[in-house]
Every structure is written in structure tokens, then in C-alpha cells.
Design the sequence.
């Protein structure tokens, strides 16, 4: 009962006029920051951090937390409307959100993203409230072997993203892993895969540059070719009847949202994981367990619900190690951590004792930010739909301009803009040759997380691969991963072919 008493005190702090105003303002600002390609929550929080010195520390963190939440909601907007991921956390939303928009169901996709974000945010804040200390201990139990096993499980879940063409899927994964290795070696510091000694490759290939190139430029080129210049824009409209119908369909997929929420939150609490791997893993799991898995990538609403629930849950989960252990769970929480230190708040177990008003005020504000973010998001859906009704002759240059801005902002290097254009052509050619794009995008996200975990594990065990199987958690995850990877091979076995023939 003590938790509920502390939470009630937190709500009194969160609903003070200044703090409540900052929650609403932060959620609205975050929504538009998240919708702008290349910005996302990291840049948004970093840019607005200086403004927080005008208010008390508790109000400052509440404001930045609201921006974080709003940006998680907003990232889906450009992914659905323009096919350009607003942030890395919204890339998985593009897989099915954009096809839904092209089929005239942009309103359904946007409502699905808003509802799933709300569900993911709500479940994660409740878990945060009830189980913060025990979950922090679980996160501590995850060392490099467990992190690598979890990443392998993620790869195993999206092996099926390429449909029945497993060789093309593996090829796409391997291409993504190669691209993720470009830059400086994490152990020796030596440069590797530096093409033609171009200095721009030394900082590696930015994931967002790849995603915007493949899904923004590539999608635009594909649309122009398929339509041969006569592009029919979406006829989607927003009516009460369509909204209610969409909500009924979305409620039927409550299991997908709950799965995405729990998976996203768990991945989010792991140090250095963050919302992007969580959303991608949730998409892979949703596709693997779906009865109509082949419809993913073609406009399945579950392909929007799973990643959106996961990335919002992970954003809350990543605050847990920051507050309880002083370890940021994502790049955005790393900036929040820096702000807390500047304000004289030392993260760690004692934070809950010495500054309980701050902690519980922040937790209560997350409930409020989640509520206001979904209200603001749904209220602006008619405005977002209006974008799709613009003539393609106007929309195409806008998309191209946003892609260039999105490619330049993360590193402010023209090298990345040229790289983005090349990836756009590559994405167009891969789609033309029927190679799955999603596995390559997912691999370049998970590669930089999986490789350090694997190498640290092998260095610690002096090269003994059994370290991944000797530990209870990593061993269990590794066995499940191997089974999932080998499952597609069963259809090539004699009894597998007989079963297929009978069906």
C-alpha cells in the first residue's frame, strides 16, 4: 500500500499547474519532433535541455520525460504518411504502416499507432510503478552472454520476415551485418571496411541514414516506376464510423499489443538496448506467431501495433536502470542522466529514499504524458491525412527534401547524404529483385549490439563458446534461438515434404 501512497503524492506533484503545463507542452512538442525525419527523441531532448534550467529540477525532468513520450508517438507519423522513419524506433512501423496508407487506410494505421503507443506506455508505467527494484536486479543479471543470446533470438524471430525465400532472407541479414561492421574495430581500434579510405566511413554507417535511404528514397523511386508517373494519392478520410470500425479491429489484436508492451519493456530495461531493438523484436515475434504471417509487410495492422506498443514500453523501461542504477538504457536517457547530474540529483538506489518526491513525481507525470500524448495524436490525425491528399508532384520533392534533412541531421556530414542516396537506389533494386528489405535494416541495428556482447563474452571465457550455454539465462535463450533458426529447414526434410503435400 506504501507504493500507492507514494504514487498519490507523485500525482499531487505532477498536477501542479507548472508541471501539468510542461507535460502537455512537452508531449505536443515531442510529437512534432518525433515526426520530423532525423530528429527523434535524442535530438529533441538535447536541443531543449538548456530551457530546463529556467524551472526547478523536478519540473525539468518531467518536461524532458514528456518530450521523450511525445517523440515516441510522433515517430510513427512520417513512417506511415511518407514512408520515412521519423526515428530509428519507428522503422518497424514503416513495414506495414506505409502499405496501409497506400491502400487508403492511413487513418486506421495512425489510430493503431496511437492506441498501441498508449497501451504500451500504460502497461510499462504500471510495471515501473510496481516492480522497479526487482526488475533492476533482473537487468543486472544480464551480462554480455545474455545480451548476445537475446540478440540472436531477435535474429531468429525475423528469419521468417522474408517469407518462404529463406536464402534471400539470410543474404539480406548478412548484408546488414557487414554494413554494421563498417568503422573502427571496437576492440583494437583499427579501421575496417573503410571503402576507398573515405573519412566519412570512420564513424560507421548511421542506421537512420540507411533506413531513410531504403524506405524514403527507395519507396519514392518504386512508386514512380510502378505508377509510371500517374500516382493516385490516398483517398483516406476521417469519419466517426471509420474510426469506430478501426478501433474494433484494433481491440481484437489486444494480445499483440500486450506482447509488444511486455517484450519492449523487458528489452528497454537492459542497459544499452533501448527502444529500437525492442520494436524490431516485437515485429518479428508478431509475424512469427501470426496465423497470417505472409500478410506482414503488405498492410497488416498487427505490424503497426506490435512495434508501436514495444517502443513506447521500452522508452519507459529504459528509465528504470537510469534511476535505480545510474546506467542509461538508451541514448535519450543518457541525456536525461546528464541533466539529473547537473541538477544535483545522483541516480542510484538512494534516489528513491533521498528524493522520493522527485522519483514519484516523475513516475506520475509519465501517466499524464501518456494520456495527453494520445489525445493530441488522435486530434491531429485529420491534419496528417491531409498530407496524403497532396498531388504527388508536390509530395515527392517534399519527401526528397525531408530525406536529405534526415540524412544530414544525425552526423551533420554530407557524406551521409550521398550514402543515403546510394542506399535509396539499392533499396529500389532490392525491391525490384524481390529481396526482403526488413532483415537488412534489422541486422544493421542489432549488429552493433550483438558484436560487442559476443566479443566480450569470448574474451572473458578465453574463446570458450560454451559460455553462452553454461549460464542458465543465456543457455535457455540460445537453445530457443537455434530451434527457431533451424525450423525453416524442416520443410526440406522427407517427413516435412510429406506433411506439406498432405496439406
Sequence:
Amino acid at each position: 500500500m506504501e507504493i500507492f501512497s507514494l504514487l498519490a503524492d507523485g500525482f499531487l506533484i505532477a498536477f501542479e499547474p507548472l508541471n501539468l503545463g510542461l507535460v502537455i507542452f512537452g508531449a505536443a512538442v515531442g510529437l512534432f519532433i518525433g515526426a520530423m525525419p532525423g530528429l527523434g527523441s535524442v535530438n529533441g531532448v538535447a536541443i531543449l535541455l538548456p530551457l530546463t534550467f529556467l524551472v526547478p529540477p523536478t519540473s525539468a525532468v518531467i518536461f524532458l520525460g514528456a518530450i521523450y513520450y511525445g517523440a515516441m508517438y510522433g515517430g510513427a507519423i512520417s513512417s506511415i504518411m511518407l514512408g520515412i522513419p521519423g526515428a530509428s524506433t519507428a522503422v518497424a512501423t514503416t513495414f506495414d504502416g506505409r502499405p496501409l496508407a497506400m491502400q487508403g487506410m492511413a487513418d486506421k494505421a495512425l489510430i493503431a499507432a496511437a492506441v498501441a503507443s498508449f497501451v504500451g506506455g500504460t502497461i510499462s508505467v504500471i510495471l515501473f510503478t510496481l516492480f522497479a527494484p526487482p526488475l533492476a536486479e533482473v537487468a543486472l543479471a544480464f551480462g554480455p552472454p545474455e545480451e548476445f543470446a537475446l540478440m540472436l533470438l531477435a535474429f531468429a524471430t525475423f528469419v521468417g520476415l522474408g517469407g518462404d525465400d529463406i536464402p534471400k532472407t539470410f543474404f539480406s541479414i548478412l548484408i546488414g551485418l557487414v554494413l554494421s561492421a563498417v568503422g573502427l574495430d571496437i576492440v583494437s581500434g583499427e579501421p575496417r571496411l573503410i571503402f576507398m579510405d573515405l573519412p566519412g566511413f570512420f564513424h560507421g554507417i548511421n542506421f537512420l541514414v540507411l533506413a531513410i535511404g531504403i524506405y524514403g528514397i527507395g519507396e519514392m523511386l518504386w512508386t514512380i516506376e510502378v505508377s509510371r508517373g500517374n500516382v493516385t494519392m490516398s483517398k483516406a478520410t476521417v469519419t466517426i464510423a471509420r474510426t469506430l470500425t478501426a478501433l474494433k479491429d484494433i481491440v481484437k489484436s489486444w494480445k499483440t499489443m500486450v506482447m509488444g508492451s511486455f517484450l519492449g519493456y523487458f528489452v528497454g530495461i537492459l542497459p544499452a538496448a533501448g527502444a529500437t531493438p525492442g520494436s524490431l523484436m516485437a515485429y518479428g515475434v508478431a509475424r512469427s506467431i501470426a496465423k497470417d504471417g505472409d500478410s506482414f509487410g503488405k498492410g497488416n495492422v498487427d505490424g503497426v501495433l506490435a512495434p508501436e506498443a514495444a517502443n513506447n514500453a521500452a522508452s519507459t523501461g529504459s528509465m528504470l536502470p537510469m534511476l535505480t542504477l545510474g546506467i542509461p538504457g538508451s541514448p535519450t536517457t543518457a541525456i536525461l542522466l546528464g541533466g539529473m547530474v547537473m541538477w544535483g540529483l545522483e541516480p542510484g538506489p538512494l534516489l528513491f529514499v533521498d528524493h522520493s518526491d522527485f522519483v514519484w513525481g516523475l513516475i506520475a507525470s509519465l501517466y499524464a504524458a501518456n494520456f495527453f500524448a494520445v489525445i493530441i495524436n488522435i486530434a491531429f490525425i485529420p491534419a496528417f491525412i491531409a498530407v496524403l491528399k497532396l498531388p504527388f508532384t508536390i509530395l515527392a520533392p517534399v519527401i526528397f527534401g525531408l530525406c536529405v534533412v534526415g540524412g544530414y541531421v544525425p552526423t551533420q556530414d554530407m557524406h551521409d547524404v550521398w550514402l543515403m542516396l546510394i542506399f535509396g537506389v539499392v533499396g529500389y533494386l532490392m525491391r525490384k529483385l524481390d529481396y526482403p528489405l526488413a532483415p537488412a535494416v534489422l541486422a544493421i541495428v542489432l549488429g552493433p549490439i550483438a558484436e560487442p556482447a559476443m566479443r566480450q563474452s569470448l574474451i572473458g571465457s578465453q574463446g570458450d563458446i560454451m559460455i553462452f550455454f553454461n549460464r542458465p539465462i543465456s543457455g535457455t535463450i540460445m537453445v530457443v534461438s537455434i530451434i527457431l533458426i533451424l525450423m525453416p529447414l524442416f520443410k526440406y526434410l522427407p517427413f516435412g515434404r510429406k506433411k506439406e503435400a498432405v496439406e
Observations:
- The longest helix spans residues 106-140.
- The chain has 24 helices and two strands.
- The beta strands are 183-184, 191-192.
- Residues 2-502 form one domain.
